[in-house]
């Protein structure tokens, strides 16, 4: 029997970074986006929380397939 399982999770990650004090709010936002887009912040991201969203499975055999899905409560 073959089963295809799909899990959907929402993952929250956290990084502690240093930002120059002279930056205004908009410059801080842009600096963080630039760090993320360049990949520089990625090594500093730690998983902070994982929320279960849903899980689904499809049982596959030669004659029929059966689906089920469970949502987070």
Structure description:
This protein has 73 residues and is an alpha+beta fold. The protein contains 1 helix and 3 strands. The protein has one helix spanning 25-38, and strands spanning 2-14, 46-60, 65-71. The protein has a 3-stranded antiparallel β-sheet with strand order 1-2-3, with no helix packed on it. β2 and β3 form a beta hairpin.
Keywords:
single chain, 73 residues, alpha+beta, three-stranded antiparallel β-sheet, 3 strands
The N- to C-terminal Cα distance equals 29 Å
List low-confidence stretches.
Answer: none
Residue share in helices?
10-25%
Number of helices: 1
Proportion of residues in extended strands: over 45%
How many β-strand runs?
Answer: 3
Overall pLDDT level: 86
The neighbouring-strand order within the major sheet is 1-2-3
As a whole number of angstroms, the C-alpha radius of gyration is 20 Å
Name the overall outline: elongated
Summarize the structure.
The protein is of the alpha+beta class and 73 residues long. It contains one helix and three strands, in the order E-H-E-E.
Summarize the SSE layout with pairings.
Blueprint: E1 2-14, H1 25-38, E2 46-60, E3 65-71
Antiparallel strand pairs: 1-2, 2-3
